[in-house]
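INFO batch 0412 | record 1 of 1 | parsing
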Amino acid sequence: MATLRPDLAIIGSGSGNSLITPFWDDKKVVLADKGVGAAGAFGGTCLNVGCIPTKMYVRPSALARSPEEAAQVGVTLGEPEADWPAIRDRIFARIDAISEGGREYREGLDNVDLIQEKVTLTGHKTFRSESTGTEAEAEQLVIAAGSRPAVPQVPGIDLPQVHTSDTVMRLEDLPARILIVGGGYIACEFSGIFSGLGSEVIQINRSRGLMNQLDEEIAQAYSAEAEKNWTVKYQRTLASLEAHDPSSNVGGVTAHVVTSDGRSEHYDVDCVLVATGRVPNTDLIGAAEAGLDLHEDGRLAVDRHQRVLAGGKPVEGVYAVGDICSAAMLKHVANHEARVVAHNLENPGDLRQVRAEAVPSAIFSYPEIAQVGLTEEEAAEQIGRENLTAKTQKYGDTAYGWAMEDTYGIAKVIADRRSGEILGAHVMGYQSSNLIQPVVQAMSFGLDAYTAARGQFWIHPALMEVIENALLGLEVPIPDGAPL
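INFO prediction complete | emitting tokens
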């Protein structure tokens, strides 16, 4: 049983992998990673089973909807047909090569020891690997062990026809009929993907409405559109699952569902996707047993420098990044945290803090959704509804919206009517993840709503006029010397 004493140890090869900068070339580093997905892939969730492959599915799914959209503007296209194996193989031929290349690169570095198995913390800066018993005693430690899909403990949940986001993208064939359990961003993204590619999608959610964590107006608008594009059943909970042929790993499955009023329903489908959230991997690495502080949801508690807390105090030289400590669970947040932690590891006498303001996110469903800042409900609670101004702009009321014959896209901005400070923005519709970026920029650099709207040119008649018109519609004061 070997004992390693590195200058830096990292648990997790997602954003944690980026911490091995040239600063460490003449020092010893240990990188421990058990891998993600069924194959134990190197490189973390986003690359292998999260953001990147899902968006690579979103693109062909969107293209498959082209005939329907073209018909709205007088163009007839042929009937789409999705080649699932070709789509899947295109995606993972690229991703698997990147993952394996990353693993081989780290294995080839003289200053890096790669432990490719599960590890458990034995102290604040020490851990032991599960299979070989290799121990690491580090000068500094970064915990970047990520999160995993939450799985409800119901009978039949281990059937091979039941998937999470870790496995569903590797299906052999496109399911003719799929049940998707959940109403959050993962469930909604996959509902959009599979319905676009031609599967019959049934989505069940235990509450009323989808994406209920969003601004109420946006959530209601999204739910209404989702109901037009696939079957959505509310106030239903998965009770059990039963294979059609228990002696075989192929064939369909019956999902037994309970409604809020106690009625039983069953759905015969080819497969089930369980997408009811994610849980941080603190339990898998023994964080609580090692004396580290946890939030109620299981995340590691950290300070603004990303130092891990123990007994309410930061542990010097122990940091965390990504899903294991971040409530946002967003890759761009994890990357920002990693940049801050990289600086702090290399400059312990000059610690920097992470930014927590104007954090945007997007849901690449159909339709697409993006958001930043406060919802209207949150803003009203914080500053009082009388001090609030909000404007919702329809895509269809702009020139490019006319060109698209758009019937559902909306952009909403929220500001403090006393100062013009932009408090939040919410967009649902085509390219919403791009349209929201000018608002993210304005919020990040302190531009008030009046100046953001009038202090720059907006290309006419681009779709970005949706954001311009929303900002122009806010009731905010005119700053001294403001542009016309």
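INFO post-check: The longest strand covers residues 236-243.
INFO record closed
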